[in-house]
Amino acid sequence: MQNKIINSFSLTRLFPTLVFHRHGNIQLQQIAAYHEKVIDHYENPRNVGSLDKNDPSVGTGIVGAPACGDVMKLQIMVDGNGQIIDAKFKTFGCGSAIASSSLATEWIKGQNLEYASKIKNQQIAKELSLPPVKLHCSMLAQDAIQAALSDYQKKQEARNEKT
């Protein structure tokens, strides 16, 4: 792992049980718990935001993990051809949960619904090199994708029943 310095505020968000004092910075090389991809997605999350949940082309999935308190909202916008043209997320949780959400939205944007439905938490965990204690974060991302797809499908079924 590269010897990278990040500020202690970011680090305490990633590692809430640790306290760091040394000129406000710590060398990342000293901490092997998180892969640099997790830190990158945490510090530079992609696709943060919300879509209009009332839009029939938007599916919304909200999931949570009672054990750790993480809550994840993931939304997809689907065009008439079944392509996911946009994806947004808002996550309240640890760095691994935020990174899992961010990565998931990157993976599903531009893809079809079937592709998105096949994304598994193991793929997310592997890509981010999540430690075993953080696998539930990748599971939240998988569950959020599935919930967003389900919400979108329900909206389409309701729309078709009206016509």
Number of domains: 2
Helix content: 40-55%
In angstroms, what separates the terminal alpha carbons? 57 Å
Proportion of residues in extended strands: 15-25%
The level 1 CATH classification of the largest domain is: Alpha Beta
Q: Which spans have pLDDT < 50 for at least 5 consecutive residues?
A: 1-9, 15-32
Strand/helix succession: EHEHEEEHHHH
C-alpha Rg (nearest Å): 17 Å
Which assembly state applies to the chains in this document?
single chain
Per CATH, the architecture of the largest domain is Alpha-Beta Complex
**CATH fold naming of the largest domain:** Sufe protein. Chain: A
How many strand units? 5
Shape annotation: elongated
Mean pLDDT: 85
| SS-based class | alpha+beta
Number of helices: 6
Biggest sheet, strands in spatial order? 3-4-5
Please describe the biggest sheet, giving its number of strands, its sense, and whether it closes into a barrel. 3 strands, antiparallel
